[in-house]
Write a structure and sequence with these properties.
Elements (H helix, E strand, L loop, with lengths): L1 H7 L13 H12 L15 H4 L13 H4 L25 E5 L9 E5 L2 E8 L10 E6 L13 E2 L5 E2 L6 E2 L6 E3 L1 H11 L24 E5 L2 E5 L4 H10 L16 E10 L3 H8 L5 H4 L5 H6 L11 E5 L6 E7 L4 H10 L18 E7 L3 E7 L8 E11 L2 E11 L6 H16 L2 H18 L9 H5 L8 H13 L6 H14 L10 H4 L2 H4 L5 H31 L18 H15 L4 H23 L7 H8 L2 H4 L4
Antiparallel strand pairs: 1-10, 2-3, 3-4, 5-6, 6-7, 7-8, 9-10, 11-17, 12-13, 13-14, 14-15, 15-16, 16-17
């Protein structure tokens, strides 16, 4: 830690070969920064101007000279506390990409941010013990022939190895540590005695054969990337106080709480998905089938007694919004009192409690983290908290990650949570297709009309119609996206490419993607969640074995079911003179007296059928399920939540 302090003050250089577990060191720094009395807590502010003009991934970066470049600038820092979001910088934030538990050990995994692919890995190679884990991330591109490193493997030494020509790269620095063909050539010239790796990990500037490393850390079980920083740069920026750690949800770290996590990819733009999560009004209707709609009602506003309060903060280069409303029934009470009961005078919708009414609180840490819970106040703990992390994978797509944190001594199996959550997500995701197409189309038209790269693009203002009193936060969120999206990485180019692709193919005129494309759980969830994919494999095995047992039992019944002792009686005859025939005869006779009797036979056959059916139903939950018929069935439940007049 002292070495990082010295590096931040320019008193010491740290090379890429320094024995530091980078993501662990960053966690220490951020934890220590919250404690009083540390010298670097009040370090000079570094100007963020260098972040917005940083060389894009794939271009040469300085992996070991980065610490020097993080010395505080003499330029005045940006003032982010502006209601127009002019100080918000997408390059100054960490981005969630995957749950750490969903990374299989020593297997490279591709993740995407802003239409750029990265490869991440979880490994114990090079750590103090098998219990210690290290996480590494590189731009998913081998510098040799530009193929994906995620198609390769992680070596025993913890390096990323390309499966095309065998080049290997240090995960923490991206430095090329081995090119097999040059090793052979060097050994032939110098002899076996002087044979060694020709390119050891160490100091020096990034070379053409080096991959591009990016900063990675793990917080609350989530893997986060900072694409604008190498690991060394991130350490220096964290020590200087110019790079904060990822936002957290306090209850996840509290004693007595249990957390279950989920993940799913969607062909829906990350901005649309974020808006959907923070739109409380939709739950009463889109999620009317089940109990979820009732929970949403606590977060809406009636515009009369229960109005939302929106507080905003502008931490360095960021934005945090906290929306609170009394957690009482509004639509449900109105439906019951007026639309169903015919009561002329509205009853008090507030339930009687022993204490003050809790506040249904939504907290948004732009651009990716949302938490929702009922609290005594904005900072008080909640008994149950829903967490959402929306990863901006690219234009027209997103990665949705969620957690359910509850104050309870027991936890629900993850696969059971996934089954329930996937059913919930299917209820409204297909509805977002129209919103997704309309907003991206309008955004592209705005870029075509205005060539300024950082101009405000009033997509939401000109596309949506806000009328509900609950839409105070959604309206502000729309203003945020309108003001900042044109400054997000690769956004303008990606939106225009999407627009050209869809207009040339006529896809914006005809029907949108099919329900199966949008709601394919197998592609969007099962393949990227080891717990779910392992469960599906177990279901397959149970189905095969139960079918085998049933078939064998029926065949045995057909072949041996001619009365007790049929084979045993022939044991001494001319067809059964050997020991094998005698043994088989005894076994067959025992089978007829036990499992082939009517009672056991029916019971075993029924058990096999039940196992097969149960496994089949569970397996179905992890493939496409919500077809048109199921959707129509769910829609009928709306009248139960909001009665027809």
């Amino acid at each position: 830690l002292q070495r990082i302090r010295n590096a931040a003050k320019g008193e010491e250089k740290i090379t890429s070969s320094s024995p530091l577990h980078l993501h662990e060191t960053m966690k220490i720094i951020w934890a220590a920064a919250a404690a009083p009395g540390l010298a670097f807590r009040h370090a000079p502010v570094v100007s963020w101007t260098r972040i917005t003009t940083r060389i894009p991934p794939g271009s040469p970066l300085h992996s070991t000279a980065a610490v020097e470049s993080a010395v505080p600038s003499s330029a005045a820092p940006l003032s982010p506390k502006r209601a127009d979001f002019s100080g918000f910088d997408y390059g100054a934030h960490w981005y969630p990409v995957v749950w750490a538990r969903d990374l299989r050990l020593d297997e490279p995994t591709r993740v995407t941010l802003f239409d750029v692919d990265y490869v991440v890995a979880r490994t114990t190679a090079g750590t103090a013990g098998e219990e210690d884990e290290a996480f590494y991330a590189l731009v998913d591109e081998c510098p040799h022939k530009k193929v994906a490193l995620s198609e390769g493997r992680v070596t025993k030494g913890g390096d990323f190895q390309c499966s095309y020509h065998g080049w290997s790269f240090d995960g923490s620095t991206g430095r090329c540590v081995e090119i097999p063909q040059t090793l052979i050539a060097k050994q032939g010239r110098a002899g076996a005695e002087s044979y060694d790796k020709p390119q050891q990990s160490g100091g020096g500037r990034r070379r053409r054969e080096d991959a591009t490393s990016v900063a990675v850390t793990v917080v609350q079980g989530m893997v986060w990337l900072q694409p604008n920083y190498t690991p060394i740069e991130a350490l220096a920026a964290a020590a200087n106080g110019t790079l904060s750690g990822p936002p957290t949800i306090p209850e996840i770290d509290e004693e007595g709480y249990k957390t279950t996590v989920a993940i799913r990819d969607f062909p829906i733009d990350w901005t649309v998905l974020t808006e959907n999560i923070m739109d409380p009004d939709h739950g009463h209707f889109a999620h009317s089938a089940g109990q979820a709609g009732k929970g949403f009602d606590l977060y809406v506003s009636d515009g009369v007694e229960n109005k939302p309060a929106l507080d905003e903060e502008w931490p360095s280069s960021g934005w945090k919004a906290t929306n609170s409303v009394p957690a009482v029934e509004k639509l449900i009470a109105y439906n019951s009192n007026f639309r169903l009961g015919g009561v002329k005078k509205k009853k008090d919708s507030k339930k009687k409690t022993d204490g003050p009414t809790k506040m249904a609180t939504t907290i948004f840490h732009a651009p990716s983290v949302i938490s929702m819970g009922r609290r005594d106040n904005a900072t008080a703990p909640a008994a149950f908290v829903s967490g959402f992390w929306v990863s901006p994978t690219g234009v027209g797509r997103s990665r949705f990650m969620a957690s359910a944190t509850v104050k309870s001594p027991i936890s629900v199996p993850r696969w059971a949570t996934h089954m329930n959550l996937n059913n919930f997500l299917d209820q409204d995701t297909y509805l977002l297709v129209g919103q997704n197409r309309a907003t991206l189309k309008r955004e592209a038209e705005g870029y075509l009309a205005n060539d300024e790269s950082d101009a405000t693009n009033p997509v939401r203002k000109s596309t949506y119609v806000y009328r509900s009193p609950s839409e105070k936060l959604p309206t502000r969120l729309g203003q945020f996206f309108d003001a900042t999206l044109s400054r997000s990485p690769n956004r303008r180019e990606g939106v225009l490419a999407w627009y050209r692709w869809n207009t040339e193919g006529g896809k914006l005129i005809g029907p949108g993607p099919s329900r199966r494309e949008i709601l394919d759980r197998h592609e969007q969830h099962t393949k990227i969640c080891p717990d779910s994919s392992d469960l599906v494999e177990r279901c397959d095995r149970v189905m095969k074995r139960s079918r085998l047992v049933a078939v064998a039992l029926v065949l045995a019944r057909l072949l041996l079911g001619g009365g007790a002792g049929g084979v045993a009686k022939e044991a001494g005859g001319p067809l059964a003179k050997g020991i094998i025939q005698w043994t088989v005869g005894l076994a067959a006779d025992a089978a007829r007296r036990s499992v082939l009797r009517p009672g056991p036979f029916v019971a075993i056959l029924a058990a096999a059928a039940a196992l097969y059916r149960g496994s089949s139903l569970i397996k179905r939950e992890f493939h496409f399920k919500t077809d048109e018929g199921r959707h129509r069935h769910d829609v009928k439940a709306i009248s139960d939540m909001w009665a027809d007049l």
